Amino acid sequence: MNVSADIRALVERRQEGYSLEAPFYRSEEVFKLDMEAIFRQHWIQVATEPELPEPGDYVTVELAGESILIVRDDDMQVRAFHNVCRHRGARLCNEHKGTVGNIVCPYHSWTYNLTGELMFAEHMGEQFDRCKHSLKTVHVENLAGLIFICLAENPPTDFANLRAAMEPYLLPHDLPSCKVAAQVDIIEKGNWKLVMENNRECYHCVANHPELTISLYEYGFGYQRSDANAEGMDAFVRTCEERAKQWDEMNLPSVEIEKLSDVTGFRTQRLPLDRSGESQTLDAKVASKKLLGEFRTADLGGLSFWTQPNSWHHFMSDHIVSFSVIPLSAGETLVRTRWLVHQDAVEGVDYDVANLTAVWNATNDQDRTLVEYSQRGAGSSAYEPGPYSPFTEGLVEKFTAWYVGRLAEKIGA
C-alpha cells in the first residue's frame, strides 16, 4: 500500500510503552490508513442477534465508507450485504433498522429475497440474467449472539480460535434469547483510538466514574500495590479465588484469556463485583428480576470481553451491556451502547430502563468528556507521547502495539 514517507516514518518510530504521536489521532491520512488497514481488513463487531429477532428484520451499519445491510433470512440465518442495488447503485434500506418481506430498491423496484438473490427486475428484456445480479455479500460471523462483519475479500482465518475460546464463557448468558431494552448512540469528538485506549484502562476510574465504581473493583484492571491499599488488594485476591471455585462448580469459566496480540485479538475474564456483587447498577443489585439463561443465582460477578479493534462487553446474571465503536472521521467516533435483558422480561415489572442504563449512561458521558480532552490536547504543540503506567495501562499498550503492528503489516514497514 502506498503511503507518504511521513506516515511510514511515524509507524516505524512508534516507541513501546508510550502513547502515540499526535498525527495518529489527528491526521486525515492516518485515518484513511486506519480504514484500509484495520476496518476494511478485520472482523468488526457491529450488532447483536436480538436486534434481528424475526425473518426480514434488518439493521444497517456505516463502516469505512460503506453501508452494510445485516438481515435475518427465512431460515433464521444472519446475512450481510452491501446496501447497494445492482441496477444503478441506489441505497436499498435507508433507515438504521426495520423489517422487510423482500429487499426492494426504492428507485426502480428491483426486488431481492432475504438471501440476496435478485427475484424481480421489470423491463430488462429476455436476455437479462437475474442470477448475475444478486446482492454483493459481506462476510459475517455470529459469536454466541454477537455479530461481526469483515469487508475484506479474504477475512482473517483465526475467528475460529476466538469462537472456540469464547463460546464456553458467553453461551451460559444466552444472548440470542435476549431483547434490546435500550440503545444509546453518542458521537464523541475524538479519534476512535482514544476511545479504545480510554476503555482499556481503569487508571481514571476512581476519579471519574463514581457510578461505575460502586460495583466495579478498580483492582481488577491493574493497580500498583502500596501500604495504603495492600489490605484491600489482598481481600480482592481472596474474593477472586473463592468465587472462581464457585463458578467452576457451576460450569462458568472465569480464568483470564488474553490473546490481544492475535490478528483477531481478544481478552476475557470473569471477576467479582463489589457490594452485593450482582450487577453494574447504582446499588450493585440486579436491574432485571428475570435472570439470563438458566441462572438461578444473581451474584455471578461480571464477565468482561474485549475484541480488537472496536468492542467491549459486560455479561452479568441479569443483563448484558454491549459496546461497538465506529470511526466517523479523524476527530469523530460513534459509540453505540446496547442493554439487553431476557426476552421474557417485562419493562416496568421486571426492569426499569432508567435504572438499567444509569451506570453506563453516566460512564459513557464521563468518558466522552475525557476523550475530548485528549483529542484537544493532542492538537497542542506541547503534546508529545507520554509513558504508560506499567501497573494500570498494560492493556492500552497491548492495544496500541496491536494497532501499529497491523498498520506496519499493511504498508510493509
Write the layout of secondary structure elements.
Elements: H1 5-12, H2 23-26, H3 28-39, E1 44-48, E2 57-63, E3 66-72, E4 78-82, E5 97-99, E6 103-104, E7 111-112, E8 118-120, E9 139-143, E10 146-150, H4 159-170, E11 178-188, H5 192-199, H6 205-208, H7 230-249, E12 257-259, E13 266-271, E14 302-307, E15 311-315, E16 319-329, E17 332-342, H8 353-378, H9 394-411
Antiparallel strand pairs: 1-10, 2-3, 2-5, 3-4, 6-7, 7-8, 9-10, 11-17, 12-13, 13-14, 14-15, 15-16, 16-17
Helix pairs in contact: 3-9, 5-8, 5-9
Describe the protein's architecture and organization.
There is one protein chain. By secondary structure, the chain is an alpha+beta fold. It folds into two domains: 46-142, 3-layer Sandwich (Rieske Iron-sulfur Protein); 159-411, Naphthalene 1,2-dioxygenase Alpha Subunit, Chain A, domain 1. The chain has nine helices and 17 strands. The strands form four sheets. It has a seven-stranded antiparallel beta sheet with strand order 11-17-16-15-14-13-12, sandwiched between helices. A four-stranded antiparallel beta sheet has the order 4-3-2-5, with no helix packed on it. A three-stranded antiparallel beta sheet has the order 1-10-9, covered by helices on one side. A hairpin with a 2-residue loop joins strand 9 (139-143) and strand 10. Helix 3 crosses helix 9 (394-411) and helix 5 (192-199) runs antiparallel to helix 9 (394-411). The chain is globular, with a radius of gyration of 22 Å. The model has no long low-confidence stretch (mean pLDDT 97). Residues 43-149 form the Rieske domain. It is an enzyme of class 1 (oxidoreductase). Its EC number is 1.14.13.239. Belongs to the bacterial ring-hydroxylating dioxygenase alpha subunit family.
